[in-house]
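To assess whether ligand presence alters the predicted conformation, the chain was also submitted together with FE2/S2 (inorganic) cluster. Input:
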Amino acid sequence: MINLNVNGRAQSVDVEPEMPLLWVLRDVLDLPGTKYGCGISQCGACTVHVDGAPVRSCVTPVSTVAGKKVVTIEGLGAKGLNKIQQAWVEHEVPQCGYCQTGMIMAASALLAKNPKPSDADIDAAMTRARCLPPAANSSRPPPRSAAASPSSFPSPPRRSRSRPARLSR
Ligand code: FES
């Protein structure tokens, strides 16, 4: 048995010590918010917090987090949307949404450590979170607005909600 603290709850899991934390979270503890993207620590979709630091759970053996505090996207929003999640909604960041868990976890870890990050700090924290280019290009405003008063920074242009014109037949 491996003893974990996940989202503030003590958990004991009967798994192999080298099993990736990602699969323990998703398949054993039924916390599917953390996503599988690449499995090789490249995309960031699987990012969770371990003792407050962003960690790629796809390459983290579960035994290495025994006794540490693990927070997933479910734990981050357990008391309602936090300011990062609110900024994500405000700026309409999600597109397909698959990478958003990792991006939000990376941004929230940054702001917990550095409440007033520079653009370079944000870029450094967010560039390791992979997404299709349009969302990746808009990943700076949400952490920026969550770190400052909303009136301090202009919002990016909103994406059109109108439906694309039909192709003629
Ligand atoms: S799934 Fe872990 S970094 Fe891509």
